[in-house]
Amino acid sequence: MVRKKNRYLLAEVLFESGKQAPSNLNEPEFYKEIRDALQIGFGDYGLGLVKKSLNVRYFMEDTCMLLVRIRRGAESMLSNVFLTVKSVCGVPVTIVTKHISGSIRCAQKYWIKYSRRKLGSTLRSITDPEEKTALRQKLDEINKTDFSDLLIIKQPIPSPRLAIKQTLALVKLKIKVVAFSKRLVKWLPPVTYNQHMFIAKLIVCIDVFLFVI
């Protein structure tokens, strides 16, 4: 099976005059604006080309980080579309592409390095000694922190009802296979080794067939 090759665009969302991200901004709102901008800029053909792979993975309000997935080969199209998005949910924004990677993990690693460099430049521009000392201590703590546990996005946990349903289906399948094999052995006369192997393969095929249906 061939893995689908996608690209992940890491972008920074900038607000007017350095304002913080409003609480009403979320992934569906960004997806709607990006989808509309794609249709306006590239028409129905462009939207249909990337609509299946387009997915806003997450938006972090604290760091204003936006991670968007797109099919390989369309990353330049999406990067140009970011420049045309002027507002999200009525809030004026500017989306700037920072990095393009082939996996979420690489994108997050880049964002950690970028945030550290940004804090370092902010530290050099501060003139107040107390604020500079406090920020330097915070930057030292961040540099010593291991972010390896945060690099993997946790997958949604399946519901207990679905897990119970799948378990009962497997138990029912095993009962059917065992009952059928016992009946098959009773019906057949004494057989040779090759015939035993044929029966075993037949039972395996029936097992697979019952699992599929």
UniProtKB/TrEMBL annotation:
The keyword tRNA processing applies. It comes from the Eukaryota. SUPFAM superfamilies: Rnp2-like. Coiled coil: none annotated. InterPro entries: Pop5/Rpp14/Rnp2-like, Rnp2-like_sf. Keywords: tRNA processing. GO terms for biological process: tRNA 5'-leader removal. GO terms for cellular component: ribonuclease P complex. Belongs to the eukaryotic/archaeal RNase P protein component 2 family. This is POP5. It comes from Bugula neritina (Brown bryozoan).
